[in-house]
Fold this sequence. Notes:
Layout: H1 3-21, E1 26-32, E2 40-46, E3 53-58, E4 66-70, E5 75-80, E6 88-94, E7 112-115, E8 120-126, E9 129-138
Parallel strand pairs: 3-5, 4-9
Antiparallel strand pairs: 1-2, 5-7, 6-8, 8-9
Amino acid sequence: MTKSNLFEALTIVVAVVVVGAGAVGGTLLLTRNSGDGDTNDVQSSVAEREPQIQKVVLNVDDQAPITVQVRQGDYIQFEPTDDSKHQIISVGSGEHAEDGFDSGIFESTQSYRMQVKDIGTFELQDTFNPDQKITIQAT
């Protein structure tokens, strides 16, 4: 096997390992030695954790406040259980009130997913159900 073929074989093996390791949070990085080009190094790094998805049920008949605790990088998926339109926006309190978050209007047959990129407390509300407050606490 030539050096070129060996490098291609290692690339294929690493690609297969990366695809299979995604569920456990592992990744591999293949680099070529910048010296004489004769050696290849395989480096491994383990991701801390995979992002999680927290589901939030939206219903205009429900006025109870919602508090969601997530970690930075997690997703929140808003899922309507009624026949109303929904629009999630940031409101005037919480650490990130000035961010001006707006999901846009989505139908009752749709869901909306957002990723929490910052740490802190976020106050949101559904414009079609303004009495229900949604608090996101991200660590």
